Amino acid sequence: MTGQQDRWTELTGGQAGEEYARRFARLAESGHDIHGEAAFCAALLSEASRVLDAGCGTGRIAIRLAELGHRCTGVDVDSSMLAVARRTAPGQEWILGDLAGLDTLGLDPGFDLVLAAGNVIPLLASGTESTVVRQLAATLRPGGLLVTGMGLDAAHLPLPEAPLTLTDFDTWCDQAGLTLSRRYATWSGEPYQHGCGYAVSVHARPAV
User: How many Cα neighbours within 13 Å face the side chain of 21?
Assistant: First the structure.
């Protein structure tokens, strides 16, 4: 743990798990597709791949990927979110921990894909972002992928302004040895254009 409070905890007090789960249940009941992130990731994966859902929240994406046959581990700093994940899928691996201290959690490296969806990167504790990106990159196998989704303006964030830019993020990825492979404006694959308020990025760790 870093000792710094992340932006998510500042916003929610670490008590958002049940309401977050109810929100997505309501969306599913009204006919919305709540599995866009999982479908996006599944299209990048081979059969029975290892996936690390970093900032997994209530486990919505990791649970869906497990249903599709992948081996998923979820990590989150919010115990209220993990309580929902553990109740929903008790057979999956859920770890309470700070992403800035990922190397202290006993994870076996070599993941095929690491996912940080749901504005995980912008909601980290200020100043820890580059450390987290480096830690995430270190868990990937050669040729593995880091997939992220993040808002870039107030309209796509639960914050008054974006705490980072895509240039910042790409610089941290480059420093961690990752290369931008592709970028979209949505999880459904709409093309990214400069000035979009949201970005879905795929960075790759070079194969040996």
Answer: 16
Residues 6+ apart with CB under 8 A from 110: 50, 139, 140, 141, 144
Q: Using CA atoms, how far apart are residues 69 and 92, in angstroms rounded to an integer?
A: 12
Place of tokens 């100043």: 127
- What is d(CA 72, CA 51) in angstroms, rounded to the nearest whole number? 5
Q: Read off the tokens for 135.
A: 């830690």
Residues whose CB falls within 8 Å of the CB of residue 66, separated by 6 or more in sequence, listed in order: 72, 89, 92
What is the DSSP code (8-state) at residue 6?
A: P
Instruction: Give the position of tokens 């949505």.
Output: 186
Burial 73-106 (b: 16+ CB within 10 A, else e): bbbbbbebbbbbbbeebeebebeebbbbebeeee
How far is Cα 71 from Cα 93, in angstroms, rounded to an integer?
9
Contact criterion met (CB below 8 Å) for 54 and 37: no
Question: Which helix (H) or strand (E) element contains residue 130?
Answer: helix 129-138
- How far apart CA 202 and CA 17 sit, in angstroms, is 27
- The pLDDT of 40-50, averaged and rounded, is 98
Contact 85, 57 (CB under 8 A): yes
Does 132 or 27 have the greater pLDDT score? 132
> What secondary structure letter does DSSP report for 186?
S
Taking the C-alpha atoms of residue 39 and residue 94, their distance in angstroms, rounded to an integer, is 21
Its pTM stands at 0.93
